[in-house]
Automatic annotation (TrEMBL):
Keyword Hydrolase attached: yes
Official protein name in the record: glycerophosphodiester phosphodiesterase
Protein source organism: Pseudoalteromonas issachenkonii
Gene encoding the protein: glpQ
Domain (GP-PDE) ranges: 90-415
Entry keyword annotation includes Nucleotidyltransferase: no
Keyword line: Glycerol metabolism, Hydrolase, Signal
Enzyme class: hydrolase
Length: 441
């Protein structure tokens, strides 16, 4: 505190009590001494540059997750942010949009993701029988993600027709319907539904009612399917960046004369045709050859091409044993890879004090100079039983939904990921805004 003493003397004048009254001047001396003036230092506000026109609505789920956390400094920090402000950030990536509650890869799901602060939104890219690119997680998932089986003329074109469950033989109900079975025009007549199938069903109607109990059908009455180009136009309108994933074909390539490299190039060409700067696109693939093709032939996209690492399906793979990773992190970097994206569990381990810490995979990836993206938060159901596939390396210390924020914090602060895919982007957006992470511009 600074003290500023001062002495001031002034006259106190009496005023007229009426228009004709005499004026009396009374002289008084008032002395003020040793007055303390406190100068308060006001913290400089954090100014975050945010894109205009955003309308971020995170809803109540982040509050629920914070309330469910065990007492900790992280919980206290997150509790202090409940009133916002919240903003869009590239740290939050909409995995297929917001498929926890909206049909994946639909217009409605994409809009929900953007509203929840996702700065980047994903369109998984596959193709129809007339070689047009569309947004679907898999080339052959129409029987579980759309109403195709309820449209007899299109169901008849499926690679494998609906077969009812047979309780006597124990054979589950099945079907296989692919985008490559139908034309683009036919594809656009379909409606998206929540991904799932009832394999005990004996009829199509019951087969289509397979939504997991921890999701919802409330917003699944008329999901709008989209072509790849339509998704680009929507993402431009929403002001988000784009991460298209080139899906592995489930038909022999070349397909109707289209080779794998032509397929990979066609995806990037559609961004160029629609005047999207390469800096706003993160093309990704599980096929390392696709990523290397983009790096070597499309230099403007090279820095943001993403290698999705699914090598955990290899026998003997261990994220804490570098000898089981082929190619090595250094070899990936030498091939020009800049960004690697493994599932969450491959990046995390447990130390001797039961703390969640970076795995050797995460440590070596950062040491090699790779940027990391993790997938996918909110993809599992409730975490009470350990969280399933995405948390398998840390299941022994996961027992409530609030642990999701602990996982996000370790990924952000200790692993140092550049972004996290989520099926409900509000959770990651809440964390990013609370920690003043860079806004999406």
């Amino acid at each position: 505190m600074k003290r500023i003493p001062f002495l001031t003397t002034f006259l106190l004048l009496s005023s007229l009590t009426g228009c004709d009254d005499d004026v009396k001047i009374v002289e008084k001396e008032v002395v003020v001494t040793n007055t303390d003036v406190e100068i308060v230092e006001v913290p400089t506000p954090v100014i975050v540059e945010v894109a205009q026109g955003t309308n971020i609505q995170l809803g109540t789920r982040p509050d629920y997750l914070v309330d469910d956390m065990a007492s900790s400094a992280l919980k206290t920090k997150l509790e202090s942010c409940k009133e916002g402000p919240f903003y869009r950030t590239d740290f939050s990536i909409g995995h297929r949009g917001a498929p926890m509650q909206y049909p994946e890869h639909t217009k409605e799901s994409y809009i929900a993701a953007a509203r929840m602060g996702a700065g980047v939104v994903e369109c998984d890219v596959t193709f129809t029988n007339d070689k047009e690119l569309v947004c679907r997680h898999s080339q052959c998932d129409l029987h579980t993600t759309t109403n195709i089986l309820a449209i007899p003329t299109l169901a008849a074109k499926c690679s494998e027709p609906f077969t009812p469950a047979n309780s006597n033989s124990g054979t589950p109900a099945s079907a296989k319907c692919c985008t490559s079975d139908i034309s683009l025009a036919e594809f656009l007549t379909l409606e998206g539904k929540m991904d799932g199938a009832n394999t005990s069903a004996t009829n199509v109607s019951d087969y289509m009612k397979g939504t997991p109990s921890w999701r919802t059908d409330l917003y699944a009455t008329s999901g709008t399917l989209m072509t790849h180009k339509q998704s680009i136009a929507l993402f431009k309108e929403l002001g988000v960046k784009m991460t298209p994933e080139l899906k592995s074909p489930q038909v022999s390539m070349p397909f109707n004369g289209m080779t794998q490299t032509q397929y990979a190039q066609k995806m990037l060409d559609e961004y160029t045709q629609m005047e999207v700067p390469a800096s706003r696109v993160y093309p990704q693939s599980f096929n390392l050859a696709d990523v290397e093709y983009w790096i070597n032939t499309n230099p403007e996209f090279a820095a943001q091409s993403v290698y999705l690492d699914g090598r955990d399906s290899n026998v003997g793979f261990d994220p804490n044993n570098a000898a089981t990773w082929q190619p090595s992190m250094a070899e990936l970097v030498n091939d020009g890879v800049k960004i690697i994206a493994p599932p969450i569990w491959m990046l995390l381990s447990i130390d001797n004090n039961s703390n969640i810490v970076p795995s050797q995979y995460a440590i070596d990836a950062k040491a090699a100079g790779l940027n990391i993206i993790a997938w996918s938060l909110e993809r599992s159901g409730p975490l009470k039983q350990g969280g399933g596939y995405y948390y398998q390396s840390i299941s022994d210390v996961i027992d409530n939904d609030g642990d999701m924020f602990t996982v996000v914090d370790v990924l952000a602060q200790d692993v140092g990921v550049m972004g996290i895919f989520s099926d409900w982007p509000a959770t990651v957006s809440y964390y990013a805004s609370c920690n003043n992470m860079p806004a999406s511009i």
